[in-house]
Amino acid sequence: MHDHLVKRFCLFLLLCILSTTGTAQIQSEDTLQLNLSASPASTDLRPYLYSLEGNSRALSVAQVAVLPFKKDTTLFHKGVRNLGRPHEVWFRFHIRNTGPTDSAITLFTGYHDYIYWYRQDTPQQYTRLSQTGLMLDKNGVERWEHYGLRVAVPAQNTRTFYLHVISKTYNESDLMPVLLNNRQYHAFRDHQLHAYRKEAMVIFLLLGMLFVFLSIAIINYIQLPDRSYLFFAAYILGLILFFALRLEIKPFQLSIFYQWPMLKYYWNTPALIFCFYFMPVVFGNFFLNMRQRYPFMQRIFAIVALIAAAIILIGLLCAAYQLYHIPGIIYTYVYLCTLIPMFIIFIALARRSRHHPLVRFFLLGTLTFYITSLTSFLLQVRAEGWQSALGQLSEPSYLLIIGILLQAMFFLAGLSYRNKLVHNERTKTQELLIKQLNKNKELQRKLNEQLEELVKEQTTEILRKKQELEEQRKLQMDIEYDKKLTEIELKAIRAQINPHFIFNCLNSIQLFVMQKDYEYAQKYLSDFSYLIRKTLDFSRRNFISLADEIMYLNTYLGLEKMRFENKMEYEIIVDAHIATAETEVPAMLLQPYVENAVKHGMINPGEPIGKLSIRFNLTGADILECIIEDNGIGIARSKELRTLPKHHQSSGMEISFNRAELLNKMYNTGIYIEIIDKSAHNFAESGTIVKIFIPQL
Questions:
Q1: 496, 498, 499, 500 alpha-carbon torsion, rounded to 10°
Q2: Cα separation of 223 and 581, whole Å?
Q3: Could you tell me if 238 and 226 are in contact, meaning their C-beta atoms sit under 8 angstroms apart?
Q4: What is the DSSP letter of 101?
Q5: What is the DSSP string of 409-427?
Q6: How many of the other CB atoms lie within 10 Å of CB of 340?
C-alpha cells in the first residue's frame, strides 16, 4: 500500500515537471521575459509580435482576440512606406515581468493616423488603456506624449496587450515597435524635439517670407488695383495654409490648427494642385494678358485651370468620404503626366519672351519650381527607390521649398516690374499731358486775345443792335398806336351802324301803327326786339359764325317782308359743303348790303314784286363767297336818286365798305367787295349784284 502511494506521488511529480517544462517552452517562445525594474535601454519587440491584417475596425478587441494571429516581419519598416492603400493591422504580444517589483516600460511604434492600446485582464475582459493618432488627437504639444504607450506589468506576472494601428493615407509612417525604459524614452523624446525643431524653424522662416510677400502684394494692390495681385495673394495664402498645416505632423512642435486634426488631410493634396497648377495658370493668364496677346495659349490655360479645379474638388470629396489615399494617387499621376506638356508650354512661352519681358519672370518662376521639384523627386528615387519616391511627392523637401520661394520671388519681381512699366507709362503720359497743358495755355492766351477782339466787335454790334431795336420799338409803338386808332375808328363805325339800322326799323314800325295794323305791329315789335338784342350783341364782336349771320338776316328779311306785304320775296341759299357753325364772317358786314337791296328792289316800277336772293358758296379751299342779288332799279338809277333830299339817302353801304378796309388793315383778312349793275351788261335787265369774298383765317 505504501509502495503504491509512492508510485502515484512520483507519477504526479513527473507530470508536474513535464507540464512545467512545456509551459516554460511556450512562454519562452511567445512571451517576452524582462525585468522591468532593470530593463535595457531599448528592446526590439518584433520577434514577440503576432499580427492580424484586414479591415477589422468594426470588431471589438474581444472578437479580434479569437481570430488567428501570425508572425509577419514584412509589416515592419523604417521610414515612410508607400502602400498605395489604407492599412489596418492588429498586434498582440505577451510580456512577463521577472523583476521583484511592479514596473512599467514605454512602447513606441511610430506616428500613425489611429492608434488604440488595449490590455487583456481576463480571457473575456479587455481594457482600452489609451487612444491617439494624427487624425484623432486634438490636444496641443502634449499630444505627442500619447504616442509613448505605457506597458505596466506586476512583479512575476504575465500580461497580454493588443495594439491596433490604422493608416488611412497614401503613406504609412515608420512601423518599428520598440520598448524603451524611462531614461531612454526621455532621451528619445528630446531627440525627436531637437530633430524636428530644425524642420519647424525652416517652415516658420518660410511662413515669415510668405507673409512678407503677401503684405507686399496687398500694398501694391492698394496702390495699383490689378487682379494679378489678387491671384498672387491667393497663391501665397494657399502656400501659407499648406505649410502651416505641415507643422501638425512635426512631433513636439508648436502648431496652430491642432484642434482640427483632419484639416491637414483635407488640404494636403488639394493644396498642391491649387498652388502649383491652378493658381499659376490663372495668375499667368491675367499677368501676361493672354486674352489679347496669346488667345490660343489663353484657351489652353483656361482648360488646365478647369481640370485643376475639378481635381481639387475630387480630392476634397475623397477626403470627405475618408478615401485619403486616393488624392495622393491622383496627384502622382497628374505630376508625371504633366511634366512633358508643361515643358512644351515653357518652350512656347520662351519663344515669346523676347517680345514680352513679363513672360521671362513667369517662365523663370514656374520653370524653377518644376526643375527643383523634378530634381527632388529624382534624388528620392535614387535614395529610396521608385515606389517610395512616388509616395514622397506630396512631401515638401528642402530643395522643393527653395523652388517654391524662388517661384514666389520671380512672380513678385514680375509684378514689381509690371508696376514699373505702368509707372513709366504713367510718367510718359503725365509728361505728354504737361506738354499738352502748355500748348493749351498758349492756345488759351491766343484765344483770349481773339476773344477780346471778338468782344469789342460784339460790343459794337450790340450797341448797333440796341439802336436798331430802339428804332423798331418806336416803330412798333407807332404801329400799335395806329392799330388802336383803327380799332377806335371801327368801334365808331359800328356805333354809326346801330343808329342807322334802328332808324330804318322804327320807320317800319311807325308805318304799321299809322296803318292801325296792331297785330302785325306787335309781331313786328317782338321780332324787332330780338333783332335789336342781336344787333347789340354783334356790335361788340368783330366776327360771328355764318349760322348766326344767316339767322340774323332771316329775322331782318322777315320784318321787311311784313312791311312790304306781298311785294317782296327773298331766299337764302347755303352750299351744302359749308359748315355754317364753324365758318366765321365779320359782324354786321352783310346787313347794310341786304338792307340796300331791299330798299332799291322794292321801288322798281318795272317789277311788281321785288325779289332778293342771298347765296353762300365756297370758292377755292378757304374763301367764302356771299352773293346778294336783287331786281331793283340798279346802280345808275340809284345815283340819279341821290339828288333827293339828304335825309332819304342811306350811308350803310359806305359804312360797311369802310369796315371791310379796317378789318383788312387790322387782321390782314383780305376781304374783297364787288358791286355789279346788271343793266351795264344787259340793258333789258335791272338790279344789282353784290359779291363779298371773305377769306377764312
A1: 80
A2: 81
A3: no
A4: S
A5: HHHHHHHHHHHHHHHHHHH
A6: 9
Per-residue DSSP letter, 175: B
Buried b (16+ CB within 10 A) or exposed e, 447-479: eeeeeeeeeeeeeeeeeeeeeeeeeeeeeeeee
pLDDT band at 572 (very low <50, low <70, confident <90, very high): very high
Give kind and range of the element (H or E) at residue 493.
helix 398-514
How many helices (H) and strands (E) the chain has is answered by: 19, 19
User: What's the rounded Cα separation, in Å, for the pair 489 and 661?
Assistant: 11
Cα 31 to Cα 33: distance, rounded to the nearest angstrom:
6
CB 180 within 8 A of CB 188: yes
Average pLDDT over residues 323-342: 82
Tally of CA atoms within 13 A in the half-sphere of 116 that contains its CB: 16
What is the average per-residue pLDDT within 516-530?
Answer: 78
DSSP lists the bridge partners of residue 370 as none
Task: Answer whether 56's CB lies under 8 Å from 64's CB.
Answer: yes
Question: Grid coordinates 342781336 are at which residue?
Answer: 534
The set of residues, in sequence order, having a beta carbon less than 8 Å from that of 126 and lying 6+ positions away, is 60, 61, 62, 65, 118, 119, 120, 162
CA–CA separation, 243 vs 239, rounded Å? Answer: 6
pLDDT band at 500 (very low <50, low <70, confident <90, very high): low
pLDDT in tens, 643-668: 544 444 455 667 777 777 877 777 77
Please report the domains of the chain, with CATH numbers, ordered by start residue.
29-180 (2.60.40), 192-429 (1.20.1070), 484-695 (3.30.565.10)
Which residues neighbour 439 within 8 Å (Cβ) at sequence distance 6 or greater?
none
Tell me the C-alpha distance between 683 and 685, whole Å: 5
Note the pLDDT of residue 50. Answer: 93
Q: Angle CA(633)–CA(638)–CA(644) in degrees, nearest 5?
A: 125
C-beta separation of 49 from 32 below 8 A:
no
Per this entry, what is the length of the chain? 697
Cα 91 from Cα 597, distance rounded (Å): 147
Task: Quote the distance between the C-alpha of residue 532 and its chain's center.
Answer: 80
Whether 130 and 149 have beta carbons less than 8 Å apart is answered as yes
Distance CA 252, CA 192 (A): 7
Segment 56-61 long-range contacts (CB within 8 Å, at least 24 positions apart): 56/88, 56/90, 57/88, 57/164, 57/166, 60/126, 61/118, 61/126, 61/128, 61/162, 61/164
Which residue type is seen at 474? K
Lowest mean pLDDT of 16-20, 254-258, 284-288, 325-329, name the range. Answer: 16-20
Q: Three-state DSSP class for 396?
A: coil
Pull the grid cell for residue 274: 491649387
CA distance 433 to 595: 90
Question: Using CA atoms, how far apart are residues 211 and 32, in angstroms rounded to an integer?
Answer: 53
